[in-house]
Structure formats: C-alpha cells, structure tokens
C-alpha cells in the first residue's frame, strides 16, 4: 500500500511524496486519514526554516522524534478511521474514528495507546482542533484568571481565538483582544471578546487603555508569534500583572524594553508550553485529565466554524504558501484525504 506524505524539503519548499506503508505490528493499527489541521504558528517556523535544529522536534510525540533537519515530515492533528488492526490489537478498534498526533499523511500506523477515540457527537473537523484546544486550556491554567480581572489577548489566530473563547466563560471585568487582521478581530468578538483592536493602529493603546477602564491589564497573553507584540504586551500590563507567553519564536530574537516601568511594576513573564503541566498543577492534574477537559471544550465551542480553507493533501504547497504570503485571508487551514 502507498500513502501521500507532506515534507518540508527546504525553507519554503514543500513536497508531497509517495511512500510505502508498512503493515501494523502487534498492538498497532493502520489508520486512513480523513482530515488533518495545519497549526500555522508552529508549522510556519518549520516551513520557513526558522525552527531550532539543535533540539528535538517534539520530545513527547512518538511520530515526531528527531531534530529539525530538512527534510522534515511534520504535523500533529490527524483524524482518521482505523482501516486495519495488527496481531493482538483488539478488533473493536476496527472502523473507529480516532485522533492521533501524527504528521500530514494519507495513511499511518500507530500503537493503540497513541490513539484517542473521538466523542460521538463531534465531526472530524472539530476533533482536529484537539491540540490547539489543549494548548488553550493550558494557557488558561497557566494564567489563572481571577474574578473581576482585566484581560488582554494579543494574537487571534487559532490558539488565540480558542483562548478567547475559554476566557469568555470567566466572570472577568474586561476581555480585550488585539490582532492585525480584521476577520480575526470579527471572529474574536463572536467568541466573547468585549472589544478587539488593531495593534498597528496609531491610537491602539489609547483604545486599549480606555477599554481596560484606564488601567493596565491584570493578565495579558502574547499569542501572536510576533516579536514586537511581546513588548506591546508588557506595556499593556499593569502593576504586578502577569504576561503569559504562549508564542514560540523559534530562532527569532525579541528586543525587549525591560527598564523603567517594567522593572518598577513587578510584572511577571510566564512561559507556557503544552508539552508539560505546570508543577503547581501536577498533584491533581494529569495529561489525561487535561485532554478530557479539552474534549469537553471542543464539544461546547464546536470550533469547526474557524476553518476558512480546505485543501486536498496533494495541494500542500499551495496551502502553506497561502499561510505564509496571505495570512490575512486564513484562520484554520485543513487538509482532506
């Protein structure tokens, strides 16, 4: 059997290669992929050659072992149906709809303990948002919003929008978002933001301060992936506020103004990354519990409405070019197989 697999062959060069697919070994299954979601923030770093090559691509995902040297097979949001079961694999896996952290390819072999059955009332498109929803859950946990707080979120890509949707369920005093693209700002308002501004507008920070009752934010998220936004997020944060940094900048370096007001305002910068659970939660939270929470949030929000573009996997080059060259046109891009 053959499959189509997406590779980053060199910076800004994508190839769709035909490969042989092995038969499933004991306790493995063969999955036929239905859809897979592109995570633009992370994947564009690999696409552009901006990911660090001296660290593992991902230390927690079996299918993404190894360092970021071209050619790279990447992706981690695959939804498919079990097509064949290997020796000793329970036969009740056959024909089951499953999620797997697996690269973009039309068939893949996986161990059953690397698969997650999809709740029955979710579409494959909804289920493909699991990694980004898990990230959003983790961001909210790391930020620990408090009743009555003023919260600002920089960046309304997929992760930013999902984080906004989760935060809108809290009894906050204000929830304000910022993004450079109007369609994302509009979607942000639909998901519960009180107001949404263009951070590049001349009066953006006057608008933001007015929307935050004339004060700085108690809690600010930097989720844009834009280096300049981190400095802006610090400026937007009030005394003893906290800035949760969910963006991964790869090899890019941010120039920050950490003198003056930052130093005197006791602002805290918090790194948030979904591969682990913050130590303060590990006594009661496991990854399984966090996944269960993410599934419930997907059932509540039904994020498939964020899909703006669908490409056949053979059109992978066009899909990444769209995200790279015209990010204002796209929110969630998804492959079909």
Characteristic terms for this protein:
337 residues, alpha/beta, Quinone Oxidoreductase, Chain A, domain 1, Rossmann fold, 16 strands, 27% strand
3D structure, described in words:
The protein has helices at residues 40-47, 124-127, 130-143, 158-167, 182-190, 204-211, 227-236, 261-264, 287-301, 316-325; strands spanning 2-10, 13-20, 28-37, 72-73, 78-85, 97-100, 107-111, 115-117, 150-154, 174-178, 195-197, 217-222, 237-245, 268-271, 307-312, 332-336. Strands 3, 5, 6, 7, 8, 15 and 16 form a seven-stranded mixed beta sheet that branches. Strands 11-10-9-12-13-14 form a six-stranded parallel beta sheet, with helices on both faces. It has a three-stranded antiparallel beta sheet with strand order 2-1-4, covered by helices on one side. The mean pLDDT is 92. It is globular. The chain is of the alpha/beta class. 27% of the residues lie in helices and 27% in strands. Helix 3 packs across helix 4 (158-167). It is built from ten helices and 16 strands. It has two domains: 2-122 and 302-336, Quinone Oxidoreductase, Chain A, domain 1 (Alpha-Beta Complex); 132-280, Rossmann fold (3-Layer(aba) Sandwich), CATH 3.40.50.
């Amino acid at each position: 059997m053959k499959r189509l697999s997406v590779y980053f062959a060199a910076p800004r060069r994508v190839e769709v290669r035909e490969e042989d697919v092995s038969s499933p070994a004991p306790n493995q299954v063969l999955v036929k992929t239905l859809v897979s979601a592109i995570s633009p923030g992370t994947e564009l770093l690999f696409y552009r050659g901006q990911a660090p090559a001296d660290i593992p691509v991902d230390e927690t995902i079996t299918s993404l072992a190894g360092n970021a040297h071209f050619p790279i097979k990447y992706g981690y949001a695959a939804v498919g149906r079990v097509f064949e079961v290997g020796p000793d694999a329970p036969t009740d896996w056959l024909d089951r709809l499953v999620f797997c952290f697996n690269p973009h390819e039309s068939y893949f072999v996986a161990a059953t303990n690397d698969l997650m059955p999809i709740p029955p009332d979710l579409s494959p498109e909804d289920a493909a948002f699991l990694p980004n929803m898990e990230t959003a859950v983790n961001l909210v946990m790391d930020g620990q919003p408090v009743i009555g707080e003023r919260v600002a979120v920089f960046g309304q890509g997929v992760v930013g929008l999902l984080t906004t949707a989760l935060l809108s369920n809290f009894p906050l005093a204000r929830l304000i978002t910022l993004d450079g693209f109007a369609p994302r700002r509009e979607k942000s308002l639909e998901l519960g933001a009180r107001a949404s501004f263009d951070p590049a507008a001349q009066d953006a920070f006057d608008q933001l301060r007015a929307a935050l009752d004339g004060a700085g934010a108690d809690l600010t998220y930097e989720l844009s992936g834009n280096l300049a936004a981190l400095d802006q997020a610090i400026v937007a944060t009030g005394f003893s506020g906290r800035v949760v940094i969910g963006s991964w900048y790869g090899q890019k370096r941010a120039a920050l103004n950490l003198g003056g007001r930052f130093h005197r305002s006791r602002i805290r910068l918090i790194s948030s990354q979904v591969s682990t659970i913050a130590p303060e939660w590990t006594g009661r939270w496991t990854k399984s519990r966090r996944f269960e929470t993410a599934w419930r949030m997907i059932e509540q929000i039904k994020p498939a409405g964020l899909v703006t573009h669908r490409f056949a996997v053979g059109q992978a080059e066009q899909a990444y070019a769209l995200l790279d060259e015209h990010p204002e046109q796209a929110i969630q891009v998804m492959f079909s197989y």
